[in-house]
């Protein structure tokens, strides 16, 4: 492994006290063996092929994971790819709870990484659901009907911003919580801003 392929920002996070330090180091070595370029994106080690995101290493309380950006397009012959939530369309994870699992799966992980590279080389794209296919929660629909300026502002947002709001408003189980979220975001929508702007 050539030192020039290592990203200093990734070195930094690996030297910090991290619950998954050993696992991150092992996953890093496996990924770099697959000739990918190491970058640091979204505060995580991210590995690219010809500037296209292939896989990212990230950790949570219960597990750490390899996240394949276009995992939905990888043939999952071992049944190990996990969809993080029902709203995730493209990405898939392979999760680990200890270093031994990674060591035992090294050969399989390399196969999956190479499959992900092949997906990129072939120029394959995930067919995302259109925002129009998403169900607008009734709490938002009521406000859109009640306030014409809000409806105009919401329709003027980019499809991605509309989608983010719809998913954000739809996720709580209780109607009261959904209503509260809609209320809090009214001015932001009227100002033409996205959820995270």
Describe, in plain words, how this protein is organized in 3D:
This protein has seven helices and five strands; from the N terminus they run ααβββββααααα. It is of the alpha+beta class and 197 residues long. The protein has two domains: 119 residues, Aspartate Aminotransferase, domain 1 (Alpha-Beta Complex); 60 residues, no CATH class. It has a five-stranded antiparallel β-sheet. The model has no long low-confidence stretch (mean pLDDT 88).
Strand-helix topology:
Elements: H1 8-15, H2 21-32, E1 37-41, E2 44-49, E3 52-59, E4 64-68, E5 92-96, H3 99-121, H4 138-146, H5 148-156, H6 159-170, H7 175-190
Antiparallel strand pairs: 1-2, 2-3, 3-4, 4-5
Helix pairs in contact: 2-3, 4-5
> The CATH topology of the largest domain is what?
Aspartate Aminotransferase, domain 1
Query: What kind of sheet is the major sheet?
Result: 5 strands, antiparallel
Name the assembly state: single chain
What is the end-to-end distance?
A: 40 Å
Strand content: 5-15%
Number of helices: 7
Number of strands: 5
The radius of gyration is 20 Å
Helix content: 40-55%
User: H/E element string?
Assistant: HHEEEEEHHHHH
Instruction: Write down the overall geometry.
Output: elongated
Helix-strand makeup class: alpha+beta
Low-confidence segments: none
Which strand order does the major sheet show?
1-2-3-4-5
Q: What is the CATH architecture term of the largest domain?
A: Alpha-Beta Complex
Mean pLDDT: 88
């Amino acid at each position: 492994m050539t030192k020039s392929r290592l990203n200093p920002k990734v070195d930094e996070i690996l030297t910090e006290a991290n619950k998954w330090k050993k696992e991150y180091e092992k996953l890093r070595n496996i990924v770099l063996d697959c000739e990918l370029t190491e970058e640091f994106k979204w505060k995580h080690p991210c590995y690219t092929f010809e500037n296209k995101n292939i896989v990212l290493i990230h950790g949570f309380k219960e597990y750490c994971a390899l996240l394949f950006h276009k995992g939905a397009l990888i043939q999952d012959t071992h049944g190990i790819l996990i969809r993080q939530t029902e709203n995730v369309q493209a990405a898939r994870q392979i999760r680990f709870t200890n270093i031994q699992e990674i060591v035992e799966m090294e050969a399989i992980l390399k196969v999956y990484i190479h499959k992900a590279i092949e997906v990129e080389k072939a120029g394959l794209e995930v067919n995302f659901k259109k925002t129009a296919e998403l169900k607008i929660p009734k709490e938002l629909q009521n406000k859109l009907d009640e306030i014409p300026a809000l409806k105009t502002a919401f329709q003027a947002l980019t499809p991605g911003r509309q989608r983010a709001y719809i998913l954000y408003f739809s996720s709580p189980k209780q109607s009261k919580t959904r209503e509260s979220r809609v209320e809090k975001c009214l001015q932001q929508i009227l100002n033409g801003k996205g959820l995270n702007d």
